[in-house]
Automatic annotation (TrEMBL):
PROSITE patterns given in the database record: PROKAR_LIPOPROTEIN
Record-level Gene Ontology MF annotations: monooxygenase activity
Signal peptide: none
Spans through the membrane: none
InterPro entries in UniProt: Aldolase_TIM, NMO
Organism: Reyranella aquatilis
Family the entry assigns: Belongs to the nitronate monooxygenase family. NMO class I subfamily.
Name listed for the protein in its UniProt record: Nitronate monooxygenase family protein
UniProt keyword terms in alphabetical order: Flavoprotein, FMN, Monooxygenase, Oxidoreductase
Length: 326
């Protein structure tokens, strides 16, 4: 059962959570810091400028994981995000490298994962695919994924728009033989526990990890995360064609008129820069920003998440025991 494959990975984790891949934010240093403390780290292949740089990052990961193991740690597995869409010119080359390095978990996004899944399973890896609604999930499951990443409303980057409870319930209508990773707005260990209670196997945490020392995000992006709340997050498909959440102060700083944005049809790009610049100068973040007020080292953040998770669990156990006794 595909879900069992995911649960096997989780045996090596201190908390059922993944530091989500983030363009221009995630890198091997952040990924290794997370894995070292028992939370699955990840980065997108397209976060590198070239195939050569991607290969250098993969080398850094292999060496870093070995260092952690040599130091007596049992690191969590790591993952790479691949855009499996014909529009990604690096798709085949990057897939070749991911295969060569036998990356243990592949997070596929955009498009239909199709043949990639067979190939990923060929080297014994687990494949999880991004979805934003039940139809996407059906297609991913037809392609043979081990699990889906259910991106609910309020997530950073390209987001879903469906409420997390509604999305979880619709996805779980498709069965329980596959894993579900829930994404959107989670910033604490308690949130991870809540995701599990909703039927998810793992939580997918992005925005919280932007505000860490290791994240490659611009200092201004980190500062903006500390200074904003959920009401400062603006959902629009007009910046880069797909629905994404953007920080309002960065839209204003880029000279974008919010009224124009509100009345612009999806796909009618407002920011007329090339894609990378859009993501570089206009900052994305999820609704969780209002609960982030520091920039710790990633290892410290993971330790905090683990202790919050354990606390939430034992608090719930006490509550349930109290109810049973009453
Ligand atoms: C700055 C940023 C960049 C992102 N880049 C990617 C990416 O390259 N690939 C991807 O699959 N998801 C990307 N995402 C989405 C995350 O992987 C994840 O779905 C999301 O951050 C979860 O919601 P949260 O930010 O509210 O925790 C990005 C998110 C952010 C905030």
């Amino acid at each position: 059962m595909p879900r069992t494959e995911v649960h096997k990975l989780m045996e090596r984790m201190a908390i059922p959570a993944i530091a989500a891949p983030m363009f221009l934010v995630s890198n091997p240093a952040l990924t290794l810091a997370c894995c070292g403390e028992g939370l699955m780290g990840s980065f997108p292949a397209h976060g590198t400028r070239s195939r050569e740089e991607f290969q250098a990052w993969l080398d850094e990961m292999v060496e870093g994981m070995k260092r952690l193991e040599d130091a007596g740690k049992q690191p969590a597995p790591w993952a790479v995000n691949l855009v499996v869409h014909a529009s990604n010119p690096r798709y085949q080359g990057d897939l070749e490298l991911v295969e060569k390095y036998k990356v243990p978990v592949v997070l596929t996004s955009k498009g239909a994962p199709g043949d990639a899944i067979k190939r990923i399973h060929g080297w014994g890896a687990v494949a999880l695919h991004d979805i934003a609604n039940r139809r996407h999930a059906e297609k991913a499951l037809e392609a043979g994924v081990d699990g889906v990443i259910a991106v609910a409303g309020g997530a950073g980057g390209h987001t879903g728009t469906i409420n997390p409870f509604a999305l979880m319930n619709e996805v779980r209508q498709l069965g329980d033989s596959f894993a579900v990773v829930l994404a959107g707005g989670q910033t604490t260990g308690r949130d991870v526990f809540a995701a599990e209670a909703m039927g998810a196997d793992l939580a997918y945490i992005g925005t919280r990890f932007i505000a860490t020392e290791e994240a490659m995000a611009a200092q201004a992006h980190k500062d903006m995360i500390l200074g904003t709340r959920a009401t400062d997050v603006f959902l629009t498909a007009s910046i880069d064609g797909a629905p994404a959440n953007w920080l309002t102060p960065s839209l204003l700083a880029a000279g974008i008129d919010l009224d124009v944005l509100r009345t612009t049809l999806p796909g009618k790009i407002v920011g007329a820069q090339e894609n990378k610049k859009r993501w570089k100068d206009i900052y994305t973040a999820g609704h969780g920003v209002g609960n982030i007020d520091d920039v710790p080292a990633a290892a410290d953040l993971v330790r905090r998440l683990v202790s919050q998770y354990r606390e939430a669990k034992s608090e719930m156990a006490h509550r349930l025991a109290g109810r049973a006794a009453a």
